[in-house]
Design a protein that fits this description.
Blueprint lengths: L36 H9 L1 H12 L2 E6 L2 E6 L2 H10 L4 E2 L2 H11 L8 H16 L3 H19 L3 E3 H18 L3 H24 L11 H26 L6 H7 L12 H32 L1 H14 L14 H13 L5 E6 L3 E3 L2 E3 L4 E5 H4 L19 H5 L19 H18 E5 L8 E3 L3 E3 L4 E6 L2
Parallel strand pairs: 2-8
Antiparallel strand pairs: 1-2, 3-5, 4-12, 5-8, 6-7, 9-12, 10-11
Helix pairs in contact: 1-2, 4-8, 5-10, 6-7, 6-16, 7-8, 7-11, 8-9, 9-10, 9-11, 10-11, 11-13, 11-16, 12-13, 12-16
The structure holds protoporphyrin IX containing FE (HEM).
Protoporphyrin IX containing FE binds next to helix 11 and helix 16.
């Protein structure tokens, strides 16, 4: 199973294949010009190419400035380990992201810090481990059915369909039997919150949320919809001992190493918002690019579909099927290598720290570009090619650590990793069983947009046909 892709970004050819030593106070980088304004345009419009060009032209450690802020790009696995494993306490999530997203993420994991984050992280992990496999399998079956109904129409914008599907999966896990009525209003509200946050972040909007203007009115309505549904559901679950969905598990979550157990409804609501937003775009983007890559590689698509027919047949897919879906799993892994949904791990320096021999000052921004590391010819043969078989067990053993990190690295890596991975594999298997697909007429390579997650800038149209 292999195939070639030619137009996925600039090629990375490097002079130095070893860990570079720091030379000088700051790493090399592009000229900043006036206040570094030229970098703002590149970061906003073609961040993936910009990051790849910087790595190609300056190496593993790159430095540049925007106004007073110094930005570092590190793309060697040793440096990933220094930043995300050894010195995690020296870094925070960036303040700008907090300014525009903490309004509804509130105290949840994504933007929380310090000992409170640590304690909540253990509780959320514990709650997720309590989710029974039949509940998750039922959610996948219901949502795949929903998207399959759309695919029967023939031509489909997969990006829109899979975003709604991924959101539905997580609402089902969180709210159980109450989910069907909540999915659509919450999905609409989540889109408004996400799009407003991105637009305001990109324009550095200074306006407060109480301002009575249409965009702020829409945002307040969306936040209220989210809050009302989740807080109300959490309050009802405080006394409903017979419910066993994820929201209930969050309310009663504990850990032997913790002195405190459980969460208030407000904190369970905050964590629920973070789980919904954390899983929405990531799972959606993975499924979007997986279906796109399979449309470009019909032989791989057929081989994966054969596996589903052979191993599962017509019975409902369930979580226990994952070990049997070896080829589908590799397709998902290879998709996340070529198109890591979270394309860069970004942090702000919270206290002075030395990385790769450079002394980083408080307030500096640090980016680890996953698209660069995932296509680095030092770790990957044919880095721009779609070759799912590279994820065979034997080849994985030869790969150094931290060269494949679609779920991040270290203690702040994805708390929904198992669930997200399982959702992607099972949904893709469900689609492969029912349909074969191709690019719709006139559909070329998608132009990409990077906000929190990478996704196609325009609708990505595929033509679905039912398998006989
Ligand atoms: C293909 C699917 C997914 C991918 C590729 C992905 C990727 C990531 C990455 C890279 C991070 C770390 C970000 C950083 O270090 O800055 C992260 C964190 C997180 N993810 Fe995911 N994710 C996926 C699915 C999910 C799902 C399904 C959920 C929830 C059910 C989820 C919830 C979260 C949360 C809450 C965090 C923050 C964890 C913390 O800071 O303690 N993700 N994810």
């Amino acid at each position: 199973m292999s195939g070639t892709i030619t137009s996925l970004g600039p090629s990375l050819r490097r002079a130095a294949p070893t860990v570079p030593l720091a030379q000088g106070k700051y790493p090399p980088g592009p000229p900043n010009g006036l206040f570094g304004w030229r970098h703002v345009g590149r970061l906003r419009n073609d961040l993936l190419e910009f990051a790849a060009e910087l790595a190609r032209d300056y190496g593993d450690c790159v430095g540049y400035r925007i106004g007073p802020i110094r930005i570092y790009q590190f793309s060697h696995p040793e440096q990933v380990s220094e930043i995300h494993v050894k010195h995690t306490d020296a870094f925070h999530k960036p303040q700008t992201v907090k300014t525009y997203f903490k309004r509804w993420m509130r105290t949840g994991l994504l933007l929380n810090e310090g000992s409170d984050w640590q304690q909540q992280r253990r509780k959320v992990r514990f709650a997720m481990q309590q989710m029974t496999t039949d509940k998750l399998s039922a959610a996948v079956a219901a949502e795949t059915e929903h998207v399959s109904a759309g695919c029967r129409a023939g031509e489909v914008d997969v990006a829109a369909a899979t975003d709604r599907l991924a959101f539905g999966l997580n609402v089902r896990a969180l709210l159980g039997i109450e989910a069907p009525a909540a999915i659509d209003p919450m999905h609409r509200a989540a889109n408004v919150m996400h799009e407003t946050g991105i637009a305001e972040l990109e324009s550095w909007s200074p306006w407060p949320d109480w301002l009575p203007i249409p965009s702020k009115n829409r945002l307040r309505r969306a936040m209220r919809t989210f809050d009302d549904i989740l807080l109300d559901a959490a309050r009802r679950r405080e006394t409903a001992a017979n419910t066993d969905d994820l929201l209930r598990q969050l309310l009663v979550a504990h850990d032997r190493s913790l002195r405190t157990a459980g969460m208030t409804p407000a904190r369970a609501r905050d964590e629920a918002v973070n789980l919904l937003m954390g899983g929405k775009e990531t799972v959606g983007a993975t499924l979007t690019f997986a279906t796109y890559l399979l449309a470009l590689h019909p032989a791989i698509q057929e081989s994966a579909a054969d596996e589903v027919a052979r191993e599962i047949g017509a019975r409902p897919l369930e979580l226990g099927d994952l070990p049997r879906l070896v080829e589908v799993t590799r397709v998902v892994q290879e998709t996340m290598r070529l198109y890591p949904p979270v394309y860069a791990l970004t942090r702000q320096v919270a206290r002075p720290v030395t990385i790769a021999g450079y002394r980083l000052r408080r307030g500096s921004l640090v980016m680890v570009p996953l698209n660069v590391i995932h296509r680095d010819p030092r770790w990957w043969n044919g880095p721009h090619e779609f070759r799912p078989e590279r994820f065979r067990d034997a080849s994985e053993k030869h790969r150094p650590p931290y060269v494949y990190l679609p779920f991040g690295a270290g203690p702040r890596s994805c708390v929904g990793k198992q669930m997200g991975h399982a959702q992607c594999v099972l949904v893709l298997a469900g689609l492969l069983r029912q349909f074969r697909w191709d690019l719709a007429s006139g559909q070329g390579a998608p132009r990409l947009k990077c906000d929190i997650v990478v996704h196609p800038r325009d609708p990505l149209r595929l033509q679905f046909a039912r398998r006989a």
